[in-house]
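Next comes this protein.

***
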Amino acid sequence: MVIGFDAKRAFQNTTGLGNYSRMLICGLAQRHNEVHSFLYAPHMSGDYKNYFSGFANISTRQPSGIDRHFPNLWRRWGVTVHLKGDKVDLFHGLSHELPHGIPRSIRKVVTMHDLIVWRYPQYYSLFDRMAHRIKQRHACRIADVVVAISQQTKNDLIKYMHVPEAKIKVVYQSCDDIFWKPVSEQDKATVRDTYGLPERYVVCVGSIEDRKNQIAAVRALLELPADIHLVIVGRPHGTYYNSLTSEIRRKKLNDRVHIITNADFDDFPALYANALASVYVSQFEGFGIPILESMCCDVPVVTSNISSMPEAGGDAALYADPNNPHQIAEQLQRVITDPQLRAELIAKGHQQRQQFTPDKIIADFYQLYSELCPKTEE
């Protein structure tokens, strides 16, 4: 079987969609030697330039000649020139879009992570809103299978884009391999020193933007004991960072809120593992990766009682209204003060996370690919 991947995110994104792409591509290559993957990406530079070079069954393609000057057009149109020559059986768009002109003989899969651009158009400029919607409509129309990363995303595909239910398959996502490995006491101590972490803190991981709702966690901190700190880990997006820091000043919490905007990704497991709890009260998510990351690091998580968060957390998380800081604080207080509850949540997390292991996700995708491209007798 020969599979082509839209690999832009695999080379350019350090978290989120990049981790999803790398996990799937590498996991498939490691577990199924008979599968050959072609990665089509407009740029192969930075941290992940040589990331896939150790795999004999992975090849890369990027624009050449005049196409190098028009990488976005190459990704949308020029990629298809390579597909027949590479004898691709199936093409998988890993993040909401598929190129134009894919030959009819090639099966097509697209992963839809969320439909935030449809649910919350106010988060996007008019141009971005239109561009994303056009790409998503095209991809869902031509795909043989639309993969939703959660039941929530599946429901949104049906509601907002009217994708036939029979065309949608839910395949959950996992988190990066580094979260599935135990965090040593030495690593925890090193990371604590590196970032000057307080002794007792709640960690909040995610891009610093309106939808992620870190301000609610700051307001909840007011109701927690004075020795409890909040460590926010994420990169700023838009003007929300200014609103967040203004709220911290207004609430006189400068000494108790620590914002880390440049954390090394390799340090994330220890940033979780050193925490008393994780708080993730986003207004909406397609899945909610920090919930899974928290469970993998044996940290109880308090998260939103809406969207896909209960789907990701199951009975291994505590839930609160993301617009109710008092409720968030109550749930965090329970985790911090009740050792038995904490132990129960960690144990339940061990069970809940089994739904999202890399092995399971890769197996689900391999089954999907095999169904779309069944082996033929020689």
